[in-house]
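User: Quick sanity check before I run a bigger batch. Here is a single chain. Can you write out its predicted 3D structure?
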Amino acid sequence: MVISMERWRGKVAIVTGASAGIGAAVAKQLVEEGLQVVGLARRSERVEELAKKLQSKKGKLHAVKADISKEEDILNAFKWTSDNLGPVHILVNNAGIIQQTNLTEGDTEKWKRVLDTNVMGLCIATREAVKVMKSNKIDGHIIHINSVGGHGVPNFPGLNVYPASKHAVTALTETLRQELNHLGLKIKITSVSPGGVDTEIAQTNNFEITPQIVEAMKQMPRLRTKMPMLESEDVADSVLYVLSTPPHVQIIFRYTN
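Assistant: Done. Predicted structure follows.
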């Protein structure tokens, strides 16, 4: 099997949640491969800082301020992309949040924030990407950054609706694959489900690691064996791998650490 990113060079990719962590790592590697990358983030100034560091690379990073929980922001971001760079060929749905609450006494607004970003925002961005790809006859690729929490629920107190949101991503991946096949479209869909990744998601969302969580974490096999966490670059590597496979290859990743 020939592995190459050549067919994507010069093409347009949109990466959500590109201000830090996995999103920033994916955006960086795509720019290095020669793509025009639109990095969506609430903290767009951080994407702009990254873009400056990548000025000497083959491609280019464009920062667009967008809150993935708001449909209007997503629609405006896709319009900006089409108007300024052309049709999107790749969408990486990376944006995701977690909130400090629980299910037994939960904060409804915090539940909504998680679901609006992790599920509804992903669905809206995917819909807009498919529209563009379909109308421009593009055999594009959509990648959902999922989680092992989308395949099983870890014994980790306080996760509330987060695992449910990632289980939704797992179901949405397969549902979209079936729908694309039914429509006869050659757009590829991939779900990448990493285990623990060393990112800023807890700090950014003010997610407190309580004593109960610390105790539960001590029982996790990864920590008992002192196995290191994944780095954002490890997940970005897997994204580039699936993009580099031939059009007839369909990959749905689930990997743990």
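The longest strand covers residues 36-41.

User: Great, the batch can go ahead then.
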